[in-house]
Amino acid sequence: RKEVEQDPGPFNVPEGATVAFNCTYSNSASQSFFWYRQDCRKEPKLLMSVYSSGNEDGRFTAQLNRASQYISLLIRDSKLSDSATYLCVVAPGATNKLIFGTGTLLAVQP
Amino acid sequence: DAGITQSPRHKVTETGTPVTLRCHQTENHRYMYWYRQDPGHGLRLIHYSYGVKDTDKGEVSDGYSVSRSKTEDFLLTLESATSSQTSVYFCAINLDGNYGYTFGSGTRLTVV
């Protein structure tokens, strides 16, 4: 079993739609959680950290469920510019070595 | 954005030759990492460094070595390149381990 698992997609959605990505992780001692965004042939960039209480940044909302070892990312009012691969990232235990999921591809259609 | 650069950006090399990739940062960050990214595998950690001359292995370290003689530079060497090392290599930096990484633009390496 992979340490971090994501549905690879692709998710094809129309502009303005709401889309949700899910991610599960296997190490219950994981302490830090992130969502990264990666555009085609570019480097990953930090989108947002994920906090236990959930957090929101504009159209983006991240949730963490430690009991189920589950992380989610919700994107509201999708824009064409949101098209990218979204990487779920976990730091297992007291370590700064991040473990990356393989990513979920989002394609927002006009 | 944090100052992190990778060189070269693209390289084609022959099987059996040594190759060195360079990561340079201007942020004085303590932690530096080398990842490779391949379809179906995502980003996998090769080696990382937590200070000058302090390095450790990641999950896919076989065939790779690293050196960090200065805070700003982290070198990745493929001792004898193989076709399985054809990949995109990303360097990343992290200030104190508690926050997300900042990545370089990557090096596309092809071993023929």
Could you characterize the architecture of this molecule?
The complex is a heterodimer of chains A (110) and B (112). Chain A has 110 residues and is an all-beta fold. Chain A contains no helices and eleven strands. Chain A has strands spanning 4-6, 11-14, 19-25, 32-38, 44-49, 55-57, 60-65, 70-75, 84-91, 99-100, 104-109. In chain A, strands 2, 4, 5, 9, 10 and 11 form a six-stranded mixed β-sheet that branches. Chain A is globular. In chain B, 0% of the residues lie in helices and 58% in strands. In chain B, the strands form two sheets. In chain B, strands 2, 4, 5, 6, 9, 10 and 11 form a seven-stranded mixed β-sheet that branches. Chain B contains no helices and eleven strands. With 112 residues, chain B is an all-beta fold. The chains are: A mainly beta (110), B mainly beta (112). The interface between A and B is medium-sized, with 19 and 24 residues.
Task: Put the structure in a nutshell.
Chain A is mainly beta and 110 residues long. Chain A has no helices and eleven strands. In chain A, strands 2, 4, 5, 9, 10 and 11 form a six-stranded mixed sheet that branches. Chain A has a five-stranded antiparallel sheet with strand order 1-3-8-7-6, with no helix packed on it.
- Share of β-strand residues of chain A: over 45%
Terminal CA distance of chain B reads 34 Å
Count of helix runs of chain B: 0
Q: Judging from the principal axes of the Cα atoms, what is the shape of chain B?
A: globular
Distance between the termini of chain A: 37 Å
Strand count of chain A? 11
The run of helices and strands of chain A is: EEEEEEEEEEE
Order of helices and strands of chain B: EEEEEEEEEEE
Report the structural category of chain B: mainly beta
Largest sheet, strands/sense/barrel of chain B? 7 strands, mixed
Most extensive interface, chain pair and sizes: A-B, 19 and 24 residues
Tell me the helix content of chain A: under 10%
Which geometry of chain A do the CA atoms define? globular
Gyration radius of chain B, in Å? 13 Å
**Quick one: how many beta strands of chain B?**
11
Report low-confidence residues of chain B grouped into runs of 5 or more: none
Average pLDDT metric of chain A: 93
The secondary-structure class of chain A comes to mainly beta
Largest sheet report of chain A = 6 strands, mixed
